[in-house]
Write a structure and sequence with these properties.
113 residues; mainly beta; 10 strands; 0% helix; 48% strand; globular
């Protein structure tokens, strides 16, 4: 059974940092592409980071330089390091297989002073 479990969400002040984790089971992340998406209150889903099966990350322009995706094959876990957070980053963050077939339960990130 495929499972994705996110963690690391929290309330943080503007300018702060968080690292989200996504522990996978039932498949091997090093053989799959993975993405992070988010959903802000009242808005649709928005892609914020991806990592190819090769391990190479990729990002949309609006997070470049602030968000960094990575992977630990030994732990079968992917990560999203988020720096210089703004209130606009407030959302529920989900890790998702690149084919969109499997989603985690989400982890809440709130950026507020």
């Amino acid at each position: 059974e495929v499972q994705l479990v996110e963690s690391g969400g929290a309330l943080v002040q503007p300018g702060g940092s968080l690292r989200l984790s996504c522990a996978a089971s039932g498949f091997t992340v090093s053989t799959e592409g993975m993405i992070w998406v988010r959903q802000a209150p009242g808005k649709g889903f928005e892609w914020v980071s991806g990592i190819w099966s090769t391990g190479a990350p990729y990002y949309p322009d609006f997070v470049k330089g602030r968000f960094t995706g990575s992977r630990d094959n030994a732990k079968n876990t992917i990560y999203l390091q988020m720096n210089r957070l703004t209130p606009g980053d407030t959302a529920v963050y989900y890790c998702v297989t690149a084919d969109m077939a499997y989603w985690g339960q989400g982890t809440q990130v709130a950026v507020s002073s």
